[in-house]
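Quick one, tokens below:
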């Protein structure tokens, strides 16, 4: 099973767009919906869902939330991707539908699904590392020290810009300072 990260809900651009499906890939998106990197290649989501079902039967919504938690809250697959994946897994015999007491469908892994998951253990290990890395980056991005420093930067820039128009040399000086900081961070 994947390592666990704290659950952080993130508002997306729209309930169906957040972490949406694009050309066979899942995109990792930041809070503003900007694409950062691809989290899942085609077929990867199938393995992740099977791995989650291996630990226990789940509703589609529980699968979505479990993946969001694994990615540190910065990625949430859309229902339009998860539910068809669950249906596909059922159709190919890797998952089965279990009716819960509440009448909601729960999906469980089948013996065939477990065998397939075992045969794909190397691919699953690579996917796990990618998800855990995304979760770690998400946790770091939310660190209090980094958030404080970013807020100080935004405040300083807004205060300077609110004092009036900048001369071209002043604007160049501010842009150069930002570029130097970016280079120093990247080299760090």
């Amino acid at each position: 099973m994947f390592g666990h990260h704290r659950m952080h809900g993130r508002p997306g651009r729209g309930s169906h767009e957040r972490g949406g499906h694009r050309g066979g890939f899942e995109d990792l998106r930041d809070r503003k919906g900007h694409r950062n990197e691809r989290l899942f290649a085609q077929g990867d989501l199938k393995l992740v869902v099977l791995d989650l079902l291996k630990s226990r039967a789940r509703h589609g919504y529980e699968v979505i939330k479990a993946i969001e938690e694994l990615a540190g809250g910065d990625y949430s697959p859309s229902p339009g991707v998860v539910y068809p994946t669950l249906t596909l897994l059922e159709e190919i015999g890797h998952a089965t539908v279990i009716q819960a007491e509440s009448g909601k469908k729960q999906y469980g892994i089948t013996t065939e699904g477990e065998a397939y998951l075992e045969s794909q253990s190397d691919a699953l290990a690579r996917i796990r590392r990618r998800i855990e890395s995304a979760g770690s980056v998400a946790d770091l991005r939310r660190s209090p020290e980094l958030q404080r420093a970013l807020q100080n930067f935004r405040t300083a820039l807004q205060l300077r810009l609110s004092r009036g128009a900048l001369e071209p040399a002043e604007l160049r000086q501010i842009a150069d300072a930002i570029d130097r900081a970016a280079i120093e961070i990247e080299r760090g």
